[in-house]
Amino acid sequence: MKRGINAFLLSLAMMMGTVGYTAHAAPSAAKNEATQTRPESSGGAQASKSQTAQDSVLKASEEGVNINTATADELAQALNGVGGKKAQAIISYREEYGPFKSIDDLKQVPGMGDALVERNRAWIKL
């Protein structure tokens, strides 16, 4: 009889653990759905503007990025290891010294080392 009760309690505890896990997972899925649909329902002009910006960043990351014409957001999204500050440094350097003539010129930008440029060479275009 003790063995049967222990087995019952063990199986009950295992079921409760599964129910608890499912209960924690369900709100996350609902939250993700809500955040994914929110921009579309917020307004036509705002949503289309946001979608256009996302499309251009996605296109830049798939095809590469032109360091002479890209925005800071496009640079940050397309290049591995380049965040907002380094992307802005690239743009500032470009504005001060003119367009880049070679990919190796990017190494002159503060914060852009040899390894970072080499890691992204395949994605960088002039």
From TrEMBL:
Region annotated Disordered, chain positions: 26-60
Gene3D superfamilies assigned to the protein according to its UniProt record, in alphabetical order: AF1531-like domain
Pfam families linked: HHH_3 (PF12836)
Keyword annotations from UniProtKB, A to Z: Signal
Signal sequence segment: 1-25
Record SUPFAM superfamilies: RuvA domain 2-like
NCBIfam families: competence protein ComEA helix-hairpin-helix repeat region
Name this polypeptide is given: Helix-hairpin-helix domain-containing protein
Organism: Siccibacter colletis
Phylogenetic lineage: Bacteria, Pseudomonadati, Pseudomonadota, Gammaproteobacteria, Enterobacterales
